[in-house]
Amino acid sequence: MVKTIILRTMSNTYWLNGKYVQKEDAYLSPLTHTLHYGLGAFEGVRSYEAKNGEVNIFRLKEHTERLFESAKIINVPIEFSFDEVMAAQLGVISKSGLKDAYIRPLIYLNDEKLGLDIEGMKSHLMVSCWEWPSVFGAETMEKGIDVMVSSFTRQFPNSLMTKSKISGGYVNGIMAHDQAKRNGYHEAILLDTTGFVAEGSGQNIFLIKDGKLFTPALTCCLNGITRRTVIQIAEDHNIEVIERNITRDELYTADEIFFCGTAVEVTPIRSVDKTEVGNGARGEITTLIQSKYLDAVRGEAKEYSDWLSKV
User: Fold this and answer.
1) CB pairs under 8 A, 24+ apart, for 1-9?
2) Minimal CB count within 10 Å: which of 74, 128, 171, 290?
3) What is the pLDDT of residues 102-115, one digit of tens each?
């Protein structure tokens, strides 16, 4: 079984409904509606320390835009301005003293009123952060991970709005991930309801064949910020990007495959269902994209400096 043990330093300062509070004061009632029913939305954002010691948040504007879009989709409005939410994310990192960190804005319903009727409920917004090392371990960024195609199916767009990061929607990914771990894999790949490749348990997926980059169309997978970043980097290096339906057997015959996402960054996949991908090692194009991505987040790629928000 694959075991990943990660020790993280949590910030003691949260931003809660417009105020900075200590972690122990960020009270949630046991009757919090979102806790019971999952109607909430969140973002995953990251900060990185540059070589000059500066700390920047990567693509903060795009993440915040998606947070507001998610709130609109689930009809739980954010009671703060866009600039206030941007500032809150910068603020929690500044007050935490953390450098390489994960930032979690969360929209939720905290009224002590259970039931499916949310009319009249007040939305709440909390922003927290914590230290974030490599998800699967540093060596997997080079050697890659082993994945399985899950028996769980990614939700259909009309069953759960797939363009928003809905809290309850991640039960699907958690169960697929847990299934994969219990079967000795690092991670899972989910198919959509028509049998085409969708994404990982919480990551977008790309495969390389004959020098071209393929990724599933945005039918039932999240429009990932890192996905957009990968596409931009590929296009800037004259790598053709094709968005289309991808069949399961294409995973077995791909030259290279990688996951991407805020948490996993760009992580190579070395095998699918115990079938070796390519030569079983990180490929040339994956290496290029991963390297440029890591340069971009740490301020070492000047052409992408507009993706950084200084803390």
Assistant:
1) 1/181, 1/182, 1/184, 2/146, 2/181, 2/184, 2/185, 2/186, 4/135, 4/136, 4/137, 4/186, 6/133, 6/135, 8/130, 8/131, 8/132, 8/133, 9/98, 9/130, 9/131
2) 171
3) 999 999 998 888 99
Low-confidence ranges of the chain (pLDDT < 50): 5
Q: Dig out the tokens for 207 from the structure.
A: 């495969």
Secondary structure string (H, E, C) spanning 215-246: ECCCCCCCCCHHHHHHHHHHHHCCCCEEECCC
**Residue carrying the six token digits 């009671």:** 79
Q: Is 193 helix (H, G, I), strand (E, B) or coil?
A: coil
Which residues are tagged catalytic? 165
Structure tokens at 302: 């000047």
Q: What Å distances lie between residue 38 and 11, 79, 116, 164, 220, CA to CA?
A: 24, 19, 11, 13, 19
Side-chain-side CA neighbours of residue 175 (13 Å): 10
